[in-house]
């Protein structure tokens, strides 16, 4: 059980065990990119709750990945005959299906605060870190191709290096990875990092006394700045952050590493 959480009574333990057994019978399937911070948000939720699941890792630009992009983006979770798109909706569905351990605080005011923070970090940390990061990495094609093909064979990594220029043209247009957009992204990201420090409770968490969806969202979406050792995939060494050096040195990055140490969950993928 993750640290920093209260002991469960016997009844909630039975509920949690029943949920995990149900997942083992027909495990959810997570369609993901290994390298994505929004996908890390979904992975961490599954692991925190101890939900046995299957991971299907895709390559950007592949036929299946392009098919998913027409209906939204990854992560996508197939569960109980339903296809759930978007990390926030995935967490909400998992909270309903597997209520323990909870990521939504029980107290209404704390729950509202945690959900507002999740939404804030989606918009000010997740999207903006992706935009600003890929802009900084535009001069490091070897790193970018290695990042996009994390966990793949040498041949696949070499193929990604060949198709990378075309893939970056598409990504630049879709995610608006241009100089003015990157500058705005860095500013919004700085606000998000400052908010973590401002909102942090004496417990170390963002809301109340325990780990919640607010902490998970903020830390998962910021993981590329922190690269905590608890990550399940081996990413290539980061190049210099350039204009984002101050972001990488922000105290909220140390907070992110602390969240991974305190409440990492346990790897629960049964197949990938």
Describe the structure concisely.
With 272 residues, the chain is of the alpha/beta class. It is built from twelve helices and five strands.
Task: Please tell me about this protein's structure.
By secondary structure, the chain is of the alpha/beta class. The chain folds into 2 domains: 10-97, Glutaredoxin; 108-262, Glutathione S-transferase Yfyf (Class Pi), Chain A, domain 2 (Up-down Bundle), CATH 1.20.1050. The protein contains 12 helices and 5 strands. The chain has a 5-stranded mixed β-sheet, covered by helices on one side. Helix 2 packs parallel to helix 4 (87-97).
Topology (SSEs and partners):
Layout: H1 10-25, E1 29-32, H2 37-48, E2 53-57, H3 63-70, E3 76-79, E4 82-85, H4 87-97, H5 108-136, H6 141-148, H7 154-175, H8 179-199, H9 213-221, H10 223-226, H11 245-248, H12 251-262, E5 269-271
Parallel strand pairs: 1-2, 2-5
Antiparallel strand pairs: 1-3, 3-4
User: In CATH, what is the class of the largest domain?
Assistant: Mainly Alpha
**Mean pLDDT, all residues:** 88
Largest sheet: 5 strands, mixed
Helix proportion: 55-70%
User: Which spans have pLDDT < 50 for at least 5 consecutive residues?
Assistant: 1-11
CATH fold node name of the largest domain: Glutathione S-transferase Yfyf (Class Pi), Chain A, domain 2
Task: Name its key features.
single chain, 272 residues, alpha/beta, Glutaredoxin, Glutathione S-transferase Yfyf (Class Pi), Chain A, domain 2, 2 domains, 5-stranded mixed sheet, 12 helices, 57% helix, globular, disordered N terminus
């Amino acid at each position: 059980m993750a640290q920093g959480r209260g002991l469960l009574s016997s009844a909630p333990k039975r509920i949690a065990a029943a949920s995990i057994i149900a997942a083992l019978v027909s495990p959810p399937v997570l369609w993901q990119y290994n390298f994505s911070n929004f996908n890390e948000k979904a992975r961490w939720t599954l692991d925190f709750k101890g939900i046995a699941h299957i991971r299907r890792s895709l390559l950007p630009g592949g036929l299946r990945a392009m098919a998913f992009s027409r209906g939204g983006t990854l992560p996508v979770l197939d569960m109980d005959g339903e296809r759930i798109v978007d990390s926030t909706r995935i967490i909400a569905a998992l909270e309903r299906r597997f209520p323990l351990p909870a990521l939504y605080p029980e107290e209404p005011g704390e729950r509202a605060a945690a959900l507002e923070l999740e939404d804030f970090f989606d918009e000010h940390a997740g999207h903006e870190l992706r935009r600003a990061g890929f802009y900084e990495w535009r001069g490091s094609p070897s790193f970018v191709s290695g990042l996009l093909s994390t966990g793949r064979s040498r041949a696949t990594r070499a193929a990604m290096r060949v198709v990378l220029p075309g893939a970056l043209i598409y990504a630049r247009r879709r995610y608006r990875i241009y100089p003015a957009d990157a500058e705005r992204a860095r500013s919004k990201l700085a606000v998000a990092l400052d908010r973590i420090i401002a909102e942090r409770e004496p417990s170390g968490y963002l809301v109340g006394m325990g780990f919640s969806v607010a902490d998970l969202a903020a830390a998962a979406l910021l993981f590329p700045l922190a690269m905590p050792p608890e990550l399940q995939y081996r990413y290539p060494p980061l190049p210099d952050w350039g204009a984002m050096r101050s972001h990488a040195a922000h105290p909220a990055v140390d907070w992110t590493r602390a969240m991974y140490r305190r409440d990492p969950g346990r790897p629960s993928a049964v197949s990938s």
